[in-house]
Amino acid sequence: MFVCLDNKNRSGLCKAFGITQSNMSYARYWSEIIERVRDAVWWNAPRPSDSEGEEIWLGRTAFLDALYYEE
């Protein structure tokens, strides 16, 4: 699992997860973002049986980047 965290989405992701942007480290990224995503209901939803639903389900973490991306 990977969630992109860069200058274009950092503000939105940190705000959504209620964490500070400063001093982001790999350990903080993992515990404050990745582990929270893994605990989310939408992450643990069963894999859909239809092909369109499955395609969306497979890209669900990439959606976070698109959702919080700021030009």
User: Which of globular, elongated, flat, extended, rod-shaped describes the shape?
Assistant: globular
Largest beta-sheet characterization: none
Query: Average pLDDT value?
Result: 92
Question: What count of domains describes the coordinates?
Answer: 1
Number of strands: 0
Low-confidence residue ranges: none
- The number of helical segments is 4
Q: Which structural category fits the helices and strands? A: mainly alpha
- Measured between the Cα atoms of the first and last residue, the distance is 24 Å
**Rounded Rg:** 13 Å
Pattern of helices and strands: HHHH
Strand content: under 5%
Helix residue percentage = 40-55%
Task: Report on the architecture of this protein.
With 71 residues, this protein is mostly helical. It has one domain (10-68). Helices cover 55% and strands 0% of the residues. It has helices spanning 10-17, 26-39, 51-58, 60-68. The two termini are 24 Å apart.
What's the topology here?
Blueprint: H1 10-17, H2 26-39, H3 51-58, H4 60-68
Helix pairs in contact: 1-4
Identify the notable features of this structure and list them briefly.
71 residues; mainly alpha; 4 helices
